[in-house]
Amino acid sequence: MRALIQRVTQASVAVEGTVVGQTGPGLLILVCAMQGDTDAQAEALAAKIAKLRIFKDDAGKMNRALLDTGGGALVVSQFTLAADTRSGNRPGFSTAAPPADGEALYLRFAAALAALGPEVETGRFGADMAVSLTNDGPVTIWLEI
């Protein structure tokens, strides 16, 4: 699985003009399931992100994790993280999981993250979504498990 995480002061996702998910201080997590990914990988990625020390401590150092801050997470499906741009000018997405598998793994990831403690909201799988955020730092990190 792949994820692009952004430390945010706020983020929201809307479908057809209606907000379907949001968070205050915490993380915006764009997630993509790849062909062959498993529930175990979704759970491992959730655990890694929850414990990743990218929030400032009292000394201003990135030394605290989402679990330490009480922050929330907005999880949004993003199949374009599977983009293969090695050839030509049009990205290919053939390495992304098929939609049914991708949705199941996306939901498994969100549930696994929520089970660890943070409040988790989601976008809508397969929908045309408008994501708004205020990146804090900015801190943006690519993860793959």
What would you say this structure looks like, in words?
This protein is 23% helix and 39% strand. The mean pLDDT is 97. It has one domain: D-tyrosyl-trna(Tyr) Deacylase, Chain: A, CATH 3.50.80. α3 links the parallel β6 (72-77) and β7 (120-122). The protein is built from three helices and eight strands; from the N terminus they run βββαββαβαββ. It is an alpha/beta fold and 145 residues long. Strands 1, 2, 3, 6, 7 and 8 form a six-stranded mixed beta sheet that branches. A two-stranded antiparallel ribbon has the order 4-5. α1 (39-51) crosses α3. It has helices at residues 39-51, 66-69, 99-115; strands spanning 2-15, 18-23, 26-32, 55-56, 62-64, 72-77, 120-122, 129-144.
Keywords:
single chain; 145 residues; alpha/beta; D-tyrosyl-trna(Tyr) Deacylase, Chain: A; 3 helices; 8 strands; 39% strand
Rounded to the nearest angstrom, the radius of gyration is: 15 Å
Gross morphology is globular
Number of strands: 8
Number of domains: 1
The CATH first-level class comes to Alpha Beta
**Percent helix range:** 10-25%
Arithmetic mean of pLDDT? 97
Kindly report how far apart the N and C termini lie.
5 Å
Helix and strand pattern: EEEHEEHEHEE
Stated plainly, the CATH topology is called D-tyrosyl-trna(Tyr) Deacylase, Chain: A
The class by helix and strand makeup works out as: alpha/beta
Q: What proportion of the residues form beta strands (DSSP E)?
A: 35-45%
Tell me which oligomeric state these chains represent: single chain
As residue ranges, the low-confidence spans are none
In CATH, the homologous superfamily goes by the name D-tyrosyl-tRNA(Tyr) deacylase
Quickly give the CATH architecture. 3-Layer(bba) Sandwich
Could you give a short account of the major beta sheet? 6 strands, mixed
Number of helices: 3
